[in-house]
Amino acid sequence: MVDIPARPYPYPLDPGHTALVVIDMQRDFIEPGGFGDSLGNDVSRLEAIIPATAALIALFREEGWPIIHTREAHMPDLSDCPPAKISRGKPGLRIGDTGAMGRILIAGEPGNQIVDALAPIAGEIVIDKPGKGMFYATGIHERLQDMGISHLVFAGVTTEVCVQTSMREANDRGYECLLIEDATESYFPQFKASAIEMIAAQGGIVGWVTPLSELQKTLARDHAHV
Ligand code: C5J
C-alpha cells in the first residue's frame, strides 16, 4: 500500500489493484456549442480541468495501470434510456434531440465523443453508460472484478452528477474510491464544493479527496525509494 495524503485521512492506494476512471469528458459537456453550452452553462469551467485530467491519465499510463473512460451515451432509439432522462429537461434540448454537435448524448454522434486532448488509446476501456452512474447497465463491475481491481481513482464531469453517482455506486460495491479534486468540475462551483464535502464527510462516507499534486508527489517519492 502507498499512503496518499488526502481528506479525511491518507488514502491507502494499492498499486497492483488500482484503476483510473475518467467520467464523461465528452465534447457535448465541455466544448462551446455543445449540449452543456446550449443549456446556458459556462463550459469554460469544465474545459479548465483538461490539463490536470491529461496529467492524471499520463501518470496512470506511465505506471501501466488500467484506465476506464466513460461516456454518457444512449442508443439512437433511446430504448436504453431511463424514462426520467427523456421526460425531464428543456424541450428541444433533451436527450435524442438534435443539437449543434448531432443528436444529444446519442452514441456515435460528434458531440458524444471524448474531447481530443483526452482521447483513449488502445488497451484502455471505454464504456457507454445510459445512467448517470457507471455501474448501471454497463457490466463494468464484472470486468473490474475479473481484473482484480479493488481501488478506483476518479476524475471527470460533472462532480455532483455522474462523478458522485459513480463513486457512490462503486463505494456500495466495495471499491476504495479517491477523487482527484482538480481533475473534476461542475458548471456550479457551489455544487462541486458541496459534493466534495459530502464525499469525505463522516470519515469518508463515500471515499477520499485529494489534489493531483499529492498523488504525483507521493508516487514519485515511492519510486525513488525502490
Ligand atoms: C450530467 C454528467 N450532468 N456527466 N451528466 O447530466 O454529469
Automatic annotation (TrEMBL):
Q: Which CDD domains match?
A: cysteine_hydrolases
**A molecular-function term among this protein's GO annotations:** hydrolase activity
| Keyword Hydrolase carried by entry | yes
Gene3D superfamilies attached here?
Isochorismatase-like
Where in this chain does the record put each Isochorismatase-like domain? Answer: 18-206
Repressor listed as a keyword: no
Q: Which domain of life is it from?
A: Bacteria
UniProt keywords (A-Z) are: Hydrolase
Specify the signal sequence span.
Answer: none
Identify the PANTHER family for this entry.
FAMILY HYDROLASE, PUTATIVE (AFU_ORTHOLOGUE AFUA_2G08700)-RELATED, PEROXYUREIDOACRYLATE/UREIDOACRYLATE AMIDOHYDROLASE-RELATED
Record's protein name:
Cysteine hydrolase
